[in-house]
Amino acid sequence: MSTDWIHATPPTLADFETLAQVAWNSLPSEFRSMAGDVVIRIEDLASDDLLDEMDIDDPFELTGLYHGVSLDRQGATPETREPDMVILYRRAILDEWASGDEELGHLVAHVLIHEIGHHFGFSDDDMEQIEERVSD
């Protein structure tokens, strides 16, 4: 079956929310438990203010971001703060997807795993093992 590229449209923010939820649900339960009640948000591109803060010139270079308090900085008593959040940047991910040969759902899962994983101090090898478990 071939795709009708003349009438095709890119995946919407809602489509990305679905892809992210599928990726989240396929993660090992211990990984999801460690992440707690992380919020997954989809945006088209990072804001200019955020890009300036991170010293990034090209918004297509940032595919995702973990925003929250790392485990080693959380105190013993709960404090009032915003929920931990992973932001996936739809247009940057689509740009990376269009320039490669990776399935879009796999790329979304890859960005999600890496954003959460780096927050918890996981190595690239640790995250590769998690990704392998997801794709099995």
UniProtKB/TrEMBL annotation:
The keyword Protease applies. It comes from the Bacteria. One of its GO terms (molecular function) is metallopeptidase activity. One of its GO terms (biological process) is proteolysis. Gene3D superfamilies: 3.30.2010.20. Keywords: Hydrolase, Metalloprotease, Protease. The keyword Hydrolase applies. InterPro entries: Zincin_1, Zincin_1_sf. Signal peptide: none annotated. Pfam families: Zincin_1. This is Predicted Zn-dependent protease, minimal metalloprotease (MMP)-like domain. It comes from Hyphomicrobium facile.
